[in-house]
Design goal:
The structure is a homodimer. By secondary structure, chain A is of the alpha+beta class. Chain A folds into 2 domains: 143 residues, Jelly Rolls (Sandwich), CATH 2.60.120.10; 75 residues, Arc Repressor Mutant, subunit A (Orthogonal Bundle). Chain A contains 7 helices and 12 strands. The longest helix of chain A has 26 residues. The two termini of chain A are 31 Å apart. Chain B binds a DNA duplex through α6. Chains A, B: Pfam families: cNMP_binding, HTH_Crp_2.
Amino acid sequence: MHAHTAIAAQPTRVLPGPQATAMPMPRMTPSRPFAANDADPLAAIAQLRVFDREQAIFAEGETADAVFRVVDGMIRLYKLLPDGRRQIIGFLQAGDMVGLAFADRYLYSAEAITASTVQRVPRSQLDALLDSQPSLARRLLSVTTSELVAAQDQMLLLGRKSALEKLASFLLALSRRAGAGRAIALPMSRCDIADHLGLTTETVSRGFTKLKTSRLIRILDGGRVELLDAGALAELADCT
Amino acid sequence: MHAHTAIAAQPTRVLPGPQATAMPMPRMTPSRPFAANDADPLAAIAQLRVFDREQAIFAEGETADAVFRVVDGMIRLYKLLPDGRRQIIGFLQAGDMVGLAFADRYLYSAEAITASTVQRVPRSQLDALLDSQPSLARRLLSVTTSELVAAQDQMLLLGRKSALEKLASFLLALSRRAGAGRAIALPMSRCDIADHLGLTTETVSRGFTKLKTSRLIRILDGGRVELLDAGALAELADCT
DNA sequence: CGCGTGATTGAGGTCGGTCAAACACTGTGG
DNA sequence: CCACAGTGTTTGACCGACCTCAATCACGCG
C-alpha cells in the first residue's frame, strides 16, 4: 500500500538565528495575523532551518520541544493508524504554524513535501515569550482558532462529500489560499491528496481526468493546475 | 432524509447572572482548564440560559455576538450542505466552550440535544476581559488547542476508519470523557451519531447490534450503554 | 388502544476501493 | 543519442462496504 517513508529527521543545515529582517513575513490574512509592519516576537527568537524534499521534520509521539512556522515550501501533517492507513491533517504553506498542540508529545507527524524553510521556536522560549508578552497569546489564539475552523470544514468534507465534491473543494481551498491567479501549485502527490481527502490515489486520478474532460481544470506543466471555471467548481463543491 | 428541525432560538428562560457560586465547575482536564479552586473570570460576566430539548442555540451564518460555555446538558454543533447533508462537528458537555471562532458570524449551528444550561458571554465583554486579564487568552488558547486535537482525531476517523471502527472509537471517546464507570449516556439519536461519524442511521444501528452480539457492549435502560470489553473496543478502534 | 417517532432488520444497488496493467516521465549509464 | 530502470499516474475490470429504500419492530403518549 503506502510507503510513507521519509529520510532522516535532521535538517539539512541550520542557519543561525535571529535574522529578523531576512525572513519573509506571512501574508495578512485572519489566519496569519503577523502583518508585515507588525512586530513579530517569534521571529526574534526563531532558528531558521531548511529541510529537503520528503524529509521528516518531527514524528507523532516525539517529545514536542518546539513549535514551527513555515517560511517557504510545503509541509504535510499526518496521523497514521497502526496498520498504515494515513490521514493528512493539512498542508502547510508560508506563514502557517505547526506544533501548537500544548501536549508534551506531537500528536501528528510533519514532513517536507518540497524543500522547505521553517522557523523553529523551542517550547521553553515560547512559554517565556508568552509570559513577557501577553498579547502573543491572543495572536496564537487567533491562529489556532482559524485552524480549528479549517478543521471543521475538513470534517464536513470527509464525512459528507462525494469524491468529486472533495476534489473540487480541495482545489478551491488551495486557490483561495494562493490568492489571485487561476493557476495553483500542486507539489504534493496524488497519494498525498488522496490521504487528505479520505480517498485512494486511483479515485483522485479519476477525479482529475473527469474535471479535465469537463473543462473545469487544465493541467499545466510543473504540476500546476489552472481552474478554468471556478464557479462550476464551487457548484460542484456544494459550497464551502 | 433528515428533518433537522429545531424549535425557536429563544432560550426558555434567562436567569440573572452573575451567580458564581451556584454553577457547577468544569472538571479538571487539560481541555477544561478552569479548576474548581481557580478564579473563573468568565463566570463573573456570564448570563445563565436554559434551553429545551431540540432547541436551537444559534445557527450558522448568524452574527456571532456571544460565546457560550456548557454548564449542563448536551449540545450538538453541526454544519449543513445546501442539499441538507449534515456533519455534526461535535457533541458538547459540561465545561465545553462554543462559538470561540473569531469570525463575525457563526460557522456552524448549535442545538440542545437534552435540556441544557449554558453560560452566555457577549463577545464585547469577552474582548474587554481579554484586555484586562491577559492570562485568559492563554487559557482559551489551551482550550482551543485541545479542541483542535480532537478535530484532528475526528479527521482521521472520518477519512480512514471503517464503520465499526468509527463506532468503537466514538464509544471509547465518550467513555473517556465520562471518566470512571463503564456505562455512558447516549442522549443523542442514531441519526446524530451517524451524522457525526459520516455514516447513515442504518449503518450505525447495524454496528450497535454487531457490538451487542459480540458481547462488547450492552444496552441499558435510558439510552445508556455499558462497555463490556473496553480493550476489545480499543483494538477495534485501531487505537486513538 | 391507536398513533407517531425512532430503531432495527432486510434486500438490493452503487460509489469508491482493490487489483492489475499500461502509460508517462525522469534520470542514469552505455 | 538511445536503452533502461524506477517511480508515479492513469485507466480498466471487478468487488465489497456502505447507502438506499422499505418493511417491521419497540416504545411512549394522548
